[in-house]
């Protein structure tokens, strides 16, 4: 798939070539603090995860590598994920700590919402967030999601945020 471009970023499919960065990103306990995820056991585990990542093939979208245009730095990832068991699309993002509070998550997530609505015609996108993750809550609110209900986030208090694609009259909704 052709990469998506913003003012400062390139969003492209993740590949096994990103395993080193993917591994390092998940090694940072502060980065993982509000995710419910655990670090990869080793670099090979990160490679295997990326090799088996099937969201692009199955649904045409997924989590995308976020690359800074200026220097091709791998900042983290952001994107949409389809969960067939819940029949829903969620927005997610994860960035290296030294790129926090620079607007990259908001810029990337905004582009993902735009692509989800305009290219993939997704009717509703949700975001799950732990109650104490004020930074991610701010990003979700900046990109237009609204808190709809409380959520048990792996034993932690959390929220579900939601945004709906606005439909023009007589515009059909196409489900993926």
UniProtKB/TrEMBL annotation:
| Top-level taxon of the source organism | Bacteria
| Keyword Transferase (UniProt) | yes
Q: Using the record, list the residue span of the signal peptide; answer none if the entry has no such feature.
A: none
Q: Which GO terms describe its molecular function?
A: acyltransferase activity, transferring groups other than amino-acyl groups
User: Which InterPro entries did the record assign?
Assistant: Acyl_CoA_acyltransferase, GNAT_dom, N-acetyltransferase
Entry keyword Transferase = yes
Keyword set, alphabetical order: Transferase
Which segments constitute the N-acetyltransferase domain? 9-166
Under PANTHER family, the record lists: GNAT FAMILY, PUTATIVE (AFU_ORTHOLOGUE AFUA_3G00765)-RELATED-RELATED, N-ACETYLTRANSFERASE DOMAIN-CONTAINING PROTEIN
What's this protein's name? GCN5-related N-acetyltransferase
Lineage, highest ranks first: Bacteria, Pseudomonadati, Bacteroidota, Flavobacteriia, Flavobacteriales
